Amino acid sequence: MKRFFLYYILFFFILFSSCITNKDVVYLQDKGTKVNDSLQIQALSKPYRVQVNDVLSIDVKALDKELVEIFNPTTSAMGKTQQSLYFNGFTVDLHGNIEFPILGELNVLGFTVEEIEEKVKSELLLKYFKKTAQIFVTVKLAGLKYTTLGEIGSKGSNVLYQDRVNILEAIANAGDILDTGDRKDVLIVRQYPGGQKIHHIDLTNITAMKSEFYFIQPNDLIMVKPLKRKAIGAGQTATQTLTTIASIFSVLVSTYFLARNL
């Protein structure tokens, strides 16, 4: 009988320790790293370089507005939308090229948007315009697209029209990580010219703000694993855990006394 109740106590301890605590859900905690109150986020040392399947929005402006219309297929009365950019934007093909009006194929793989601006401007001046045309070229990514999976509020693809987005902004836009999600080991699947790589980031630690993966990149996949506590099946809070324990304890006690009376 004593051994039986010792098992109950051990089971009670395991379940009680499985409830989710503040340390599991609070972002950017100072875990004894002695960071300054005014932690500065350093800009990415390496600007984003265009990859295969990226969609570019390219605007060409000059003194003669009618003359440059052919170079701006995505301009319309409705403006530039995600749908119009999908059909009329400049998609980087598997060889790293875009098909630009008049100029034909331009290789942009591995270039920054600033470098592409200079390249398009130079080609236009060389083959089509004179310097007196006062050409102005603007190149932007057609939205920063990323995908979320796992223990997160909204799964699927999202597009944000910003030049830079950090992972907390991306997660907030997707409905935040659920209480049952593991914030200490969030996975980022990132595309590189040679393939994909998986990176890890601990969002409960304030040092995540200094990580090279704190800012997301186009086509990133953010995966949030479930906490091990969820697999146990106990509640997320102490109250829920105690309710679960009480129910299981009651069933076990009833089973034990019924077995003794047989």
From TrEMBL:
Q: Tell me the InterPro entries matching this sequence.
A: Poly_export, Poly_export_N
The Polysaccharide export protein N-terminal domain sits at: 45-140
From the UniProt record, which GO molecular function terms apply?
polysaccharide transmembrane transporter activity
Keyword annotations for this protein, in alphabetical order, are: Membrane, Signal, Sugar transport, Transmembrane, Transmembrane helix, Transport
Which Gene3D superfamilies is this protein grouped with?
Outer membrane lipoprotein wza domain like, wza like domain
- Designated name of the protein: Sugar transporter
Quote the Pfam families the UniProt record gives.
Poly_export
- Any stretches that span the bilayer, and where are they? 238-259
The organism that produces this protein has a lineage beginning with: Bacteria, Pseudomonadati, Bacteroidota, Flavobacteriia, Flavobacteriales
